[in-house]
């Protein structure tokens, strides 16, 4: 077996041409194996990758040729379990053993001998003074011209090292690109409606909450936000993220009820390639996507009980495992959870873990319903009307003081979300019009479920009282005093009724000309 300078140059050029177009590990490895077999015979070839941090080795691709059993069947193993690979990595020099039978007490060598392989040649894969791993050639019988073969395979291993390094870089870039695509998707979906200047409030209750938000934002404490649907829990979570030191990383919102139950775990924690039918590629989950940033678990009460244990593990150890993968992944993300349900009742019912509740409830923020902070209603109506009208390019409806009073008296069961929808509806239906209290009553009633009247949906005593007085005034045609007046029918002193009418913003003259028969229909 002889290789002159021309033959060596031609062989190395053929190596390079064979691997330059390969875009996956298996394709690259098979191309190398095919080219090497053209020039010399071997019984087994394998490439091991070295992980310095984990002190482990793993196969670059499935070995070519004889397949020994034992420890060599494992795709990844500790460096200490690979006797020859360990010697190559530690010395950074070729290791040539012409008779493996003298070292069968070493686990990996014993497996080679049992498979009939009695000689081996292993070479380091070095790139820019960094060791990537080792390439191994094993033989049933020791090859001839070992010294010359060592020279040529040392040169070949340098080419192999460059090819492997390029492939690893390509794979890493491909993975990074997929991650960036997912991040882009989340950014586009999660940044659509949030604007810091649109978070409007002036009530003492919300002012107190925002002071708490500012105080807790720049810590990594887990935060639990509670409150009715539509109160702005999502906005508060985004506000906390944007005030924190994590603001330059992703805010990943996860709506727990919206995730398919069969893919719940895969969506949150990701999955390995082949983890289940349809898992054709590795996928990172939302926790991994939120690394360095914030993950917002909306409606946390809907998280299945079996996944609550895994979430607890993440909060305790900052690590998790993908579906179908046994390797732990370290993460650094802040968790904010929200719910419109009473988690303490869920604990008693057995649907929510008590230990998870304590982990989530380090900082607790309860957002009061809109009906409990009426000071914010007028501000929200004015500012949101202005912003939405500008966005729709339509003139603003003009609300009378009595109309705004009526809106402040309304119970708002849908909270801020319902108010926003009303603002948009009025801009679409009544652009530039003057809006009276009666107009407000009609549009609020039209928004109720079919067959349900306003008086069935009013949640406050003030609203009920106003409706009762208005119906009585319609019956008496606006008369307050006298034997047939509203005061007598209601059993109230005239002065008391007049005070309540003024307090509730009712105008008796609006009912002076009404037909009592029509008013009752």
Could you give the distance between the termini? 111 Å
Number of helices: 21
Extract low-pLDDT stretches.
451-459, 513-521
Strand portion = 5-15%
Please describe the biggest sheet, giving its number of strands, its sense, and whether it closes into a barrel.
7 strands, antiparallel
Can you offer a commentary on this structure?
By secondary structure, the chain is of the alpha/beta class. Helix content is 47%, strand content 14%. It is built from 21 helices and 16 strands. The strands form four sheets. Strands 1, 2, 3, 4, 5, 6 and 7 form a seven-stranded antiparallel beta sheet that branches. A five-stranded parallel beta sheet has the order 9-10-13-8-14. It has a two-stranded antiparallel ribbon with strand order 11-12. A hairpin with a 2-residue loop joins strand 6 and strand 7 (130-139). It is elongated. The chain starts with a helix and ends with a helix.
How are the SSEs placed, and which strands pair?
Elements: H1 5-19, H2 25-39, E1 44-51, E2 56-59, E3 64-65, E4 76-78, H3 83-91, E5 95-97, H4 107-114, E6 119-127, E7 130-139, H5 146-190, H6 204-217, E8 223-227, H7 233-243, E9 251-255, H8 264-269, H9 286-289, E10 294-298, H10 305-317, E11 319-321, E12 328-330, E13 334-339, H11 343-349, H12 354-360, E14 363-367, H13 375-392, E15 398-399, H14 401-409, H15 415-429, E16 434-435, H16 437-446, H17 454-457, H18 461-475, H19 486-490, H20 494-503, H21 516-520
Parallel strand pairs: 8-13, 8-14, 9-10, 10-13, 15-16
Antiparallel strand pairs: 1-2, 1-3, 1-7, 2-4, 5-6, 6-7, 11-12
Helix pairs in contact: 1-2, 1-5, 6-7, 13-14, 13-15, 14-16
């Amino acid at each position: 077996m002889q290789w002159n300078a021309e033959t060596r140059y031609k062989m190395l050029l053929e190596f390079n041409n064979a691997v330059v177009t390969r875009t996956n590990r298996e394709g690259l490895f098979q191309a190398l194996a095919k080219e090497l077999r053209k020039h010399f015979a071997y019984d087994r070839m394998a490439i091991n990758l070295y992980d310095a941090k984990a002190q482990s080795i793993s196969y670059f691709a499935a070995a070519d040729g004889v397949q020994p059993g034992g420890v060599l069947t494992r795709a990844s193993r500790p460096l200490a379990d690979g006797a020859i690979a360990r010697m190559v990595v530690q010395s950074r020099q070729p290791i040539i053993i012409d008779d493996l039978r003298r070292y069968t007490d070493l686990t990996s060598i014993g497996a080679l001998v049992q498979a009939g392989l009695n000689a081996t040649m292993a070479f380091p894969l070095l790139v820019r003074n960094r060791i990537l791993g080792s390439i191994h050639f094993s033989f049933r019988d020791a090859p001839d011209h070992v010294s010359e073969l060592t020279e040529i395979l040392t040169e070949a291993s340098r080419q192999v090292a460059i090819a492997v390094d390029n492939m690893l870089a390509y794979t890493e870039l491909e993975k990074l690109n997929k991650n960036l695509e997912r991040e882009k998707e989340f950014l586009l979906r999660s940044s659509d409606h949030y604007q810091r200047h649109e978070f409007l409030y002036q009530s003492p209750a919300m002012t107190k909450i925002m002071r708490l938000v500012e105080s807790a934002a720049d810590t990594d404490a887990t935060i639990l936000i509670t409150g009715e649907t539509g109160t702005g829990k999502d906005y508060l979570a985004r506000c906390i993220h944007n005030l924190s030191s994590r603001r330059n990383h992703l805010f990943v919102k996860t709506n727990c009820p919206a995730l398919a139950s069969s893919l719940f775990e895969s969506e949150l924690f990701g999955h390995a390639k082949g983890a289940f039918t349809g898992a054709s590629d590795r996928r990172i989950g939302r926790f991994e996507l939120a690394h360095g940033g914030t993950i917002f678990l909306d409606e946390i009460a809907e998280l299945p009980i079996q996944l609550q244990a895994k979430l607890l593990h993440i909060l305790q150890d900052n690590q998790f495992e993908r579906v179908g993968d046994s390797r732990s992944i370290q993460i650094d993300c802040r968790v904010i959870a929200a719910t419109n349900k009473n988690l303490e009742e869920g604990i008693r019912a057995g649907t929510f873990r008590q230990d998870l509740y304590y982990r989530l409830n380090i900082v607790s923020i309860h957002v009061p319903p809109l009906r409990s902070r009426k000071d914010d209603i007028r501000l929200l109506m004015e500012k949101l009307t202005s912003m939405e009208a500008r966005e729709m390019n339509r003139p603003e409806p003009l609300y009378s003081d009595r109309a705004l009073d009526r809106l402040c008296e309304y119970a708002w069961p849908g909270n801020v979300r319902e108010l926003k929808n009303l603002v948009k509806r009025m801009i679409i239906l009544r652009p530039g019009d003057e809006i009276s209290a009666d107009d407000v009553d009609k549009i609020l009633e039209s928004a109720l479920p079919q067959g349900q009247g306003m008086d069935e949906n009013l949640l406050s005593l003030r609203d009920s009282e106003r409706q009762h007085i208005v119906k009585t005034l319609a019956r008496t045609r606006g008369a307050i005093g006298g034997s047939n007046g509203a005061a007598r029918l209601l059993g109230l002193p005239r002065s008391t009724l007049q005070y309540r009418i003024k307090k509730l913003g009712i105008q008796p003259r609006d009912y002076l000309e009404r037909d009592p028969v029509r008013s009752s229909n």
